């Protein structure tokens, strides 16, 4: 009886130690991802250095599911550039092309008008009520590169939340059950 009891008692601290090691490993993975994201924010000057194209408004140039890499510099925004912008009252940023730039003589600031390549009219109907132009604070960044179709993972997880929960559960289970 003493032999079996000794084995059971010695397994418990080992299992607890393994569980703590796995929890620390998961925490380090999450922390590393956050550090990389914050570093990208600092390097690119954009609050969101990577975005996913969610609609077909920019086809054929960018398709739904493409990932765009953004950069925000102090250089003036010019017609023809692809920008990602926020509209007051909307959560999801929009990816469209600058079609017109209006420089205000009194302040030197630039007002911007955008349009999706696949849309008929400009974006004034998308802007906040009464707003005719975008201002610098609306612009999150300029597109400087893209990866086609990689963003479909994000779109699928957003449109089908059950898949997101299954994936997170599977990853958590994988971390917990890994033997190092």
Q: Features of this protein?
A:
single chain, 180 residues, alpha+beta, Umud Fragment, subunit A, 3 helices, 21% strand, elongated
Strand content: 15-25%
And the CATH topology of the largest domain? Umud Fragment, subunit A
Mean pLDDT: 85
> Which sequence of strands runs across the widest sheet?
1-2-6-3-4-5
CATH level 1 name of the largest domain: Mainly Beta
Low-confidence sequence ranges? none
**Sheet with most strands:** 6 strands, antiparallel
Shape: elongated
Helix content: 25-40%
- Please report the total strand number as a whole number: 6
Describe this structure in words.
With 180 residues, the chain is an alpha+beta fold. It folds into two domains: 1-44; 50-154, Ribbon (Umud Fragment, subunit A), CATH 2.10.109. Helices cover 38% and strands 21% of the residues. The protein has three helices and six strands. It has a six-stranded antiparallel beta sheet with strand order 1-2-6-3-4-5. Helix 1 packs across helix 3 and helix 2 (152-159) crosses helix 3 (161-177). The longest helix has 43 residues, at 2-44. The protein is elongated, with a radius of gyration of 24 Å.
């Amino acid at each position: 009886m003493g032999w079996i009891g000794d084995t059971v008692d010695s397994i418990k601290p080992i299992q607890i130690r393994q569980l703590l090691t796995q929890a620390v490993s998961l925490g380090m993975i999450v922390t590393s991802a956050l550090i990389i994201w914050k570093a990208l924010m600092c390097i690119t000057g954009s609050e969101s250095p990577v975005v996913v194209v969610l609609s077909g408004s920019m086809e054929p140039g960018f398709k739904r599911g493409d990932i765009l890499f953004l950069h925000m510099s102090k250089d003036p925004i010019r017609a023809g550039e692809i920008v990602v912008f926020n509209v007051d009252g909307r959560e999801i940023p929009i990816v469209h092309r600058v079609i017109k730039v209006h420089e205000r003589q009194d302040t030197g600031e630039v007002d911007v008008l955008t349009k999706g390549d696949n849309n008929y009219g400009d974006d004034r109907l998308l802007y906040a009520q009464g707003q005719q132009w975008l201002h610098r604070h609306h612009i999150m960044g300029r597109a400087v590169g893209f990866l086609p179709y990689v963003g479909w993972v994000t779109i699928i997880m957003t449109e089908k939340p059950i898949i997101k929960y299954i994936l997170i559960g599977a990853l958590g289970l994988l971390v917990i059950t890994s033997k190092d």
